[in-house]
Amino acid sequence: MFPYGRQSISEEDVEAVAEVLRGDWLTTGPLVTELERAIGELAGGHRAVSATSGTAALHMAYAAAGAGPGTEVVCPPMTFVASASSASILGATLVFADVDRETGLIDPGAVEAAVGPRTRVVTAVDYAGQPADYDALQPLADAAGALTLADAAHSVGGTSLGRPVGDLADITTLSFFPTKNMTTGEGGAAVFKDGDLAQRAHEFHFIGLVRDPARFRITDEGPWHQEVHELGLNYRLTDIACALGLSQLRRLGAFKRRRAEIVARYDAALAGMDGVSTLGRREGVDPTWHLYVARILDGRRREVFEAMRAAGIGVQVNYIPVYWHPVYADLGYRRGLCPNAEAFYAEQLSLPLFPAMTDDDVDRVVEALADALA
Fold this sequence. Notes:
InterPro entries: DegT/StrS_aminotransferase, PyrdxlP-dep_Trfase, PyrdxlP-dep_Trfase_major, PyrdxlP-dep_Trfase_small. The protein has about 375 residues and is α/β, with parallel strands linked by helices. It has two domains: about 10-250, Type I PLP-dependent aspartate aminotransferase-like (Major domain) (Aspartate Aminotransferase, domain 2, 3-Layer(aba) Sandwich), CATH 3.40.640; about 250-374, Aspartate Aminotransferase, domain 1 (Alpha-Beta Complex), CATH 3.90.1150. The protein is built from 13 helices and 15 strands. Helix 2 (about 30-40) runs parallel beside helix 8 (about 240-250), helix 3 packs across helix 4 and helix 3 (about 55-65) crosses helix 7. The radius of gyration is 21 Å and the shape is globular.
């Protein structure tokens, strides 16, 4: 089966990891600090806190933002469940805001209708790699006394109006899963414009440990002392993972260029094909494309999915609307809540997209799609 996504591992990546294994630090060592510094620079000069996954990054970001019982988080449903569930697990109430029918990105008009006095976070998802319209979302969040959060699991390395992903929202979370735009194996990070929020996130992901003597409440212990003021979890990334991440980061520009070339080849091939349309594009953005979305028309998505899988092409569907998951249905969320997202989902099909694909690979996928639609 030709995969829809795949990691791109070089000999340099392998050697970087092997060098750590030969050394003294396996976890929570100097390469964690180095990767966090490099991600922060990429993201506009803000503090980055690494994590064991993109989901962990979301969890610690929501915790730092104060999401919890009595608060609401506005979120699009066209995303992986973790964008919402990591706030729900803290006790926040999810308010789903519909997406733009063409791009799959959260609709600022729907957000305006969704925010209220209990809104703590307005979350947008950079679906497929395109940054959402944060220039429109930030004033809505500010007026509600809320923070913006960019779930940028798909978009690291991209820009909007010349500003990098990581500088577009108050908080930005990243994923370094193998199929994403760069990888640490499993891993992620959260980027914060506010230093106090970043420190809260750091302590949350470090089991809640406080190591600053100026903040100690117990003051008569020795130099070994550390204490916990708020409960946290162990979401610390390892030096092994960070060695891979640093090596991958050096090739992120090349990954981005090749992904753009593949997207352009798909666009040209699908432009004259009946029964399919492509994802709408936002002006002013320079995406790092994570997904190539073909929209299968006339109710044929499942038929085409199964035909392409039978032909050995590993297409995928990204994603079921979050509130369709039974865990949210059991909380009272009902189908029909976000009609644009549901219509988008009914047509969505992700074609293979990863940097190692050749032009011949792309043509093979296109041929299989044309056969499935015939």
